[in-house]
Specification:
The complex is a heterodimer of chains A (226) and B (89).
Chain A lengths: L3 E6 L6 H10 L3 E6 L10 E4 L19 H11 L4 E4 L1 H8 L6 E3 L7 E9 L15 E8 L3 E3 L2 H9 L3 E5 L11 E5 L5 E4 L19 H13 L1
Parallel strand pairs in A: 1-2, 1-3, 3-4, 4-11
Antiparallel strand pairs in A: 5-8, 6-7, 6-9, 9-10, 10-11
Chain B lengths: L1 E9 L6 H9 L14 E8 L5 H15 L5 E9 L8
Antiparallel strand pairs in B: 1-2, 1-3
């Protein structure tokens, strides 16, 4: 028996196919979910993939957050279903208040596309258990609105509770406060990050590394052993 | 129809690189004496029916939940005109 991992497609989502493939490569059964459909097709976990949902017209993730599929995802995430938000998916999770803080335009105002080193700061979430704390990984980063901001009190809370899941290494590519690349909720089932693990799952493409596959093997182990 | 304007601005403590880019361009264009620029959004809502307390409360809710992200932005709501000049309706 394997687990069913759903990947949502919004109008403007770009990375849903890669996320589905990453789920399959990890050994899961990938399931496409549609933004207008409240039904999650009995998936065990959901990935919100990267892109520019609804053109990011109001704010990144602001319109998708109110889509029918998100109603169910927000409800289920609060009940413990694992949800991973990558890039635009991270922006949607902050807009939905499933994760604290907000994402803003990169401080240098340019679109970034680079291979980015990260340090795994929390290897106990549903999506990071196949890593070790302090492990350095390299995955692609590509975004316009990647600057993570939150008020000082929230940042201190995140640090104190070990909820900074990933930090940028070597350079801070977008002005994110405290070099934060990704965070988790208190329960560890909802994780969001700007860089793209789903683009680093096969040695043939991208960085040539498979550093991103661990997200998908982590969740699979958790679900299958559950 | 009445027009209600919602202005959305980044909170003062949030870095606004777009505003900074505009401000830095000003001297080059011959506009001196501008110490700071902050860039925001303005929504003009054409409201059907009366703009009473109930309608304004709904617009306030709309601004708070959707037009602005109150984690990073402040907003103001104001009625600009109770009727559009020259409109026959």
């Amino acid at each position: 028996m394997t687990a069913r991992i759903g990947v949502v497609t919004f109008p403007g989502t770009l990375d849903d196919r890669d996320a589905l493939r990453a789920a399959r490569l990890a050994g899961a059964e990938p399931v496409s979910l549609w933004h207008r459909d409240k039904d999650l097709k009995q998936v065990d976990a959901v990935v919100l993939a990267g892109g520019f949902s609804y053109g990011d017209y109001l704010r990144a993730g602001a319109i998708s957050r109110f889509s029918p599929v998100m109603e169910t995802i927000i409800e289920q995430a609060k009940a413990g279903m694992p949800v991973l938000g990558i890039c635009n998916g991270f922006q949607i999770l902050t807009e939905a208040h499933l994760l604290p803080g907000a994402m803003l335009r990169n401080n240098h105002l340019h679109f970034i596309c680079r291979d980015q080193k990260l340090r795994v700061e929390n290897a106990e979430t549903a999506w990071t258990s196949d890593y070790t704390r302090g492990q350095e990984i390299e995955v692609p980063l590509k975004n316009m609105d990647g600057r993570y901001v939150a008020d000082e009190r929230t940042l201190d809370e995140l640090e104190a509770e070990g909820r900074v899941a990933f930090r940028y290494l070597d350079v801070n590519p977008n002005g994110s406060l405290r070099d934060i690349a990704g965070i988790t909720n208190a329960a560890g089932n909802v994780v969001g990050l700007m860089p793209h693990p789903e683009h680093a799952v096969e040695p043939l493409i991208g960085t040539g590394k498979t550093d991103g596959l661990g997200f998908f093997t982590s969740i699979l182990k958790k679900l299958v052993n559950a | 129809m009445a027009r209600v304007v919602v202005d959305v601005m980044l909170k003062p403590e949030i870095l606004d690189p777009q505003g900074q880019a505009v401000q830095r361009a000003l001297p080059r264009l011959g506009f001196d004496g501008i110490a700071d620029v902050r860039q925001g959004k303005r929504f003009e809502l054409e409201v059907e029916g009366p703009v009473d307390d109930a309608a304004l409360a709904r617009i306030h809710e709309m601004a708070e939940t959707f037009l602005a992200n109150t984690v990073i932005e402040d907003f103001t709501v104001r009625v600009e005109s109770t009727e559009t000049a020259g409109a026959s309706s």
